[in-house]
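Example 9 (inverse folding). The structure is encoded as follows.
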């Protein structure tokens, strides 16, 4: 196929060859009722003319769409955090290498996530599903498990009604270790900034932090825990301002996402506080902006793009192998030590 030629479809390929559409289709599908000579001729012509199979044609032959559906965690038009973008890049790369298309779906004001998911599954728009940002009692995951739909969750249920494929980051262990490390640097007053949605990642991460502090005799005070609605930047700044205006002020603020940590850094500058001289700030995710924050953000790297790639591999394995392809994977994040944390200030 030359650089200036265009790809052709099944009907045009059949016309070029002087064969019927069903004959060409069956030849490309490798059916035994088409002679070897005809199959070779059809395949050669398909290569020369850049034949591209339509999605509908592939579905008719295989019964599959060759597409993987991804449930976006927010309504369309509100994808503002870099975490989702990085995950999607990794997922798309993996699926492209495996010959699969990525189909994105999002909720809207008129349809919630569960309605969108059911439409995607019942309409056979995708052979498998990827969901992320699971909640403690995630209805999407429970529907997919009950209906035995191939899917992979980035995150995990606390109590699952059946087996399913998931990958997650061990945030509980990470935050436990962080608390102990900061205490060793002299910190005694901690604050936590977290989403106000019952995401399981927030459940595990906050549990690790609070358990470690309790064991160290430094239980986290209720008025030192701030909860922020997803993508509510104004709310994040307001909560950070309230925490940093406390007397005495927390010396270490742990944000369960980098996006929340950036809001704390913004407010610290607004109040004339030095980071980390007056207050240490630590995030979680290591989105690309974290290294360029002011100051560069200490955060946990969970290799978001690679997680997307792994999710792609896992969902295809689940489709191809059935329930034998169910896998679970708990990854250990790496603490990226940058300039936003340090020893506790001397009172």
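The amino acid assigned to each position is listed next.
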């Amino acid at each position: 196929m030359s650089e200036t030629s265009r790809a052709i479809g099944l009907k045009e390929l059949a016309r070029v060859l002087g064969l019927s559409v069903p004959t060409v289709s069956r030849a490309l599908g490798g059916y035994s009722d088409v002679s070897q000579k005809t199959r070779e001729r059809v395949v050669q012509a398909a290569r020369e003319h850049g034949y591209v199979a339509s999605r509908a044609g592939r579905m008719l032959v295989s019964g599959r769409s060759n597409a993987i559906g991804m449930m976006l965690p927010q309504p369309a038009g509100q994808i503002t955090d870099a975490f989702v973008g990085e995950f999607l890049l990794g997922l798309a790369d993996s699926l492209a290498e495996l010959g699969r298309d990525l189909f994105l779906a999002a909720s809207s004001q008129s349809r919630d996530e569960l309605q969108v998911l059911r439409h995607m599954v019942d309409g056979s728009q995708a052979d498998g599903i990827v969901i992320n940002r699971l909640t403690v009692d995630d209805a999407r995951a429970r529907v997919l498990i009950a209906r035995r739909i191939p899917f992979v969750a980035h995150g995990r249920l606390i109590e699952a009604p059946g087996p399913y494929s998931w990958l997650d980051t061990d945030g509980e262990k990470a935050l436990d270790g962080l608390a102990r490390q900061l205490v060793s640097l002299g910190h005694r007053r901690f604050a936590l900034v977290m989403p106000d949605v019952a995401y399981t990642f927030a459940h595990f991460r906050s549990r690790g932090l609070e358990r470690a502090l309790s064991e160290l005799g430094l239980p986290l005070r209720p008025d030192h825990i701030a909860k922020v609605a997803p993508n509510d930047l104004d709310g994040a700044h307001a909560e950070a301002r309230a925490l940093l205006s406390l007397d005495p002020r927390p010396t270490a603020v742990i944000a369960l996402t980098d996006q929340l940590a950036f809001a704390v850094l913004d407010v610290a500058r607004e109040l004339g506080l030095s980071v980390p001289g007056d207050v240490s700030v630590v995030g979680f995710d290591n989105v690309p902006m974290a290294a360029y924050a002011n100051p560069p953000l200490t955060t946990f790297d969970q290799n978001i793009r690679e997680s997307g790639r792994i999710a792609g591999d896992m969902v295809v394995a689940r489709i191809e192998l059935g329930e034998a392809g169910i896998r679970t994977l708990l990854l250990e994040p790496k603490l990226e030590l940058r300039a936003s944390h340090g020893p506790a200030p001397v009172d």
